[in-house]
Design goal:
52% of the residues lie in helices and 18% in strands. The protein is built from seven helices and seven strands, in the order ααβαββαββααββα. It has helices at 2-39, 44-73, 84-102, 121-137, 169-172, 190-200, 234-239; strands at residues 80-82, 105-109, 117-119, 144-152, 155-162, 204-210, 214-222. Strands 2-4-5-7-6 form a five-stranded mixed sheet, with helices on one face. A two-stranded antiparallel sheet has the order 1-3. β6 (204-210) and β7 (214-222) form a beta hairpin. α1 (2-39) runs antiparallel to α2 (44-73), α3 runs parallel beside α4 and α4 (121-137) runs antiparallel to α6. 25% of the residues are buried. The structure holds adenosine-5'-diphosphate and magnesium ion. Magnesium ion is lined by residues 130, 133-134, 190. Residues 20-225 form the Histidine kinase domain. This is histidine kinase. It comes from Paenibacillus solani.
């Protein structure tokens, strides 16, 4: 019965979102159409400028569609036994490039003896990327993004902390609402997607934020009783 209830709720959420998504995608489409029309009689310089706007708006429509699809699919994701640290390392080049462009730094504090988990790797990458991008977007060029892993009790925790602008108290409860954004170029779907990914992994997300100081997102996964592999660094520790 509980399951049915959740499914019905989810359906209506997707229905509501389908309504807003038409609106969200019509905006960039209208901008693109308008600029294409204007392009007919313009100089190369102006064209260049328009070109960039058109590309940005098309990319925006594309991200909305992609994020929305990931969110609406909600299929039972195929999970495999893997290590969070491997996923983080695979994302590193992308994250460092992004941080470099912004003049920001990234710090990794990966814990010892973090056990493996059953994860959907593609979704886990989406989750970490979305969280890290949000962190970077909240910081100026002196900012530091910290990605940390810990085992705490029966949870494996992933901390993604930034030294950015922080989140006002009254916005905290709206963060995970689809289409809630405070950015001119945001889709507002990033955190909604993160939440649905974490829920599919039986995890939770906590947020702590202080305005002007920064924000930390804490993602907790239950220790996986089906994974009996040695904790990652145990063999290394034994040989030292
Ligand atoms: P988007 O990034 O497209 O705006 P998200 O769902 O990823 O959408 O985030 C929703 C909103 O939550 C953001 O617009 C921003 O106001 C707030 N937010 C999310 N992460 C952070 C963060 N690390 N620091 C400050 N604000 C944040
Ligand atoms: Mg985002």
């Amino acid at each position: 019965l509980r399951n049915e209830f959740i499914n019905v709720e989810r359906l209506s959420l997707v229905g509501q979102m389908a309504a807003s998504i038409t609106h969200e995608i019509r905006n960039p489409m209208a901008v693109v159409r308008g600029f294409l029309q204007l392009m007919k009689e313009k100089s190369p310089d102006t064209l260049n400028h328009y070109y960039r706007i058109v590309m940005e708006e098309l990319d925006r429509a594309n991200s909305i569609i992609n994020d929305f699809l990931s969110l609406a699919q909600n299929r039972v994701a195929e999970k495999e036994e893997c290590h969070l640290h491997d996923i983080i390392h695979e994302l590193s080049p992308l994250l460092w490039a992004d941080a470099n462009l912004r003049g920001q730094s990234i710090e990794l504090k990966l814990g010892n003896h973090i056990p493996r988990l059953h994860l959907n790797i593609k979704e886990m990458k989406q989750l970490i990327l979305n969280m890290c991008r949000n962190g970077m977007e909240a910081m100026d060029d002196k900012g530091t993004l910290t990605i940390e892993t810990r085992v705490e009790g029966k949870q494996i925790r992933l901390y993604i902390a930034d030294t950015g602008i922080g989140i006002p108290e009254n916005e905290l409860e709206r963060l995970f609402e689809p289409f809630f954004t405070t950015k001119t170029k945001g889709t507002g779907l990033g955190l909604a997607l993160c939440m649905s990914i974490v829920q599919r992994h039986h995890g939770t997300i906590d947020v702590k934020s202080r305005q002007g100081e920064g924000t930390v997102f804490i993602i907790s996964f239950p220790l996986d009783p089906y994974v009996h592999g040695l904790p990652e660094s145990q063999s290394a520790a034994a040989s030292e």
